[in-house]
Specification:
Layout (H helix, E strand, L loop, with lengths): L5 H5 L4 H5 L4 E5 L12 E6 L27 H12 L9 E7 L12 E6 L16 H5 L7 E5 L5 E5 L3 E5 L9 E4 L2 E5 L3 E6 L5 E12 L3 E7 L4 E7 L2 E12 L16 H5 L6 H4 L4 E3 L5 E3 L14 H4 L22
Antiparallel strand pairs: 1-2, 2-3, 4-10, 5-6, 5-9, 7-14, 8-11, 9-10, 11-14, 12-13, 15-16
């Protein structure tokens, strides 16, 4: 076996795969002796310098090439074994884990959003409950005037609210005071007589709110210093926040919960600008005749309105409502804290 170590055979790489340039392989970790725990499975990719260089020994060069050498002698055999022992060993620090399998349930494609409607008068229940009341009369009698809801205003924070509450949330970009917005990621809705538990969200529930103020939160004093450098500094920090007034909690079981596609922007500046637009900039949009004779924005000839990256329309507030994970319809770019 020329230049091919036992370690490569043990992890599943064949000589034919190496000749073809294949460097991806599977590793099955053995079962642990304690508790008989099944080991996980890995798929690894060796880097360009993952394998050590094949340093060919000088004497003997190869058992099939040096035919004048007597390979049956013990000294020659030991020399061959020692020289080839460490030439094809893999370096673990040069491995990239490509995939790792854990015993978790399949989550893609994402399951259909569902929920459970619970009448308090029928508790405790011992069977699986439906998504909504079975009768049409009960659906029409659902009143959310005195209901509460738990919704997400961003990818992290949740709020339990009722109609009329004032909520402080993270700063919502491209919004001004007085604008009305909708949040579609509702985790739970409840009242005195019923409760709707989302699995993970309630697909037919929404929370409507009005932006009261775009402002700054209270000051936080931050102290930084460098040890043994005699350097220290105090500075004040204020976080940008948005104040919301909850207008309505909507539970509509009759309509399709799927969001409509976002409208196409009438100007490229509305989509790409990183600042507030002046009233003069929002007026005087150049219009041209479309294929059917109706006036359409001239920008439609240059830009079809597709997103240049996922979640760009959601970040700019062009979608019908704000949705965040774990909502199956969410398109928000997840923040990494």
């Amino acid at each position: 076996m020329c230049g091919f170590g036992q370690e490569q055979l043990a992890i599943g790489i064949t000589p034919h795969a190496l000749r073809l340039g294949g460097v991806r392989t599977m590793i099955r970790h053995p079962v642990k002796a304690v508790g008989n725990v099944l080991g996980h499975k890995l798929e690894v990719i060796y880097k360009q310098h993952g394998m050590r260089k094949n340093v060919t020994p000088k004497i003997p060069k190869h058992p099939m090439q040096d035919v004048d050498q007597n390979m049956n002698e013990v000294i020659t055999y030991n020399d061959l074994k020692l020289r080839w022992k460490w030439t094809t060993r893999f370096a673990n620090r040069h491995l990239n884990i490509q995939r790792k399998w854990h015993p978790f349930p399949m989550s893609r494609p994402a399951p259909k959003p569902t929920c459970a409607f619970i009448w308090h008068s029928q508790m405790p229940h011992r069977q699986r409950l439906p998504e909504m009341p079975p009768s049409a009369l009960a659906k029409s009698n659902i009143c959310t005037k005195d209901a509460f809801a738990v919704f997400k205003s961003d990818s992290i924070h949740q709020h339990k609210v009722t109609v009329g509450d004032l909520v402080q949330c993270e700063y919502i970009t491209r919004r001004q005071a007085g604008e009305k917005i909708v949040f579609g990621t509702v985790l739970l809705v409840g009242s005195k007589n019923w409760t709707i538990i989302g699995k993970p969200t309630v697909p037919y529930a929404m929370v409507k709110a009005t932006i009261e103020q775009q402002t700054l939160a209270g000051e936080k004093i931050v102290f930084t210093y460098k040890s043994r450098k005699k350097q220290s500094k105090f500075h004040r920090r204020r976080q940008h926040v948005t104040m919301l007034r909850i207008d309505e909690i909507v539970v509509n079981m009759q309509e399709d919960p799927t969001d409509p596609p976002p409208p196409k922007p009438v100007r490229l500046l509305d989509l790409w600008a990183n600042r507030w637009l002046d009233p003069e900039e929002k007026q005087g949009i150049e219009m041209v005749d479309g294929p059917d004779g109706t006036p359409v924005p001239k920008v439609s000839e240059l830009y079809d309105g597709s997103e240049h990256q996922p979640g760009s329309y959601h970040t700019r507030g062009l979608t019908s409502c704000y949705r965040f994970s774990p909502d199956p319809q969410h398109q928000a770019q997840e923040s990494h804290y």
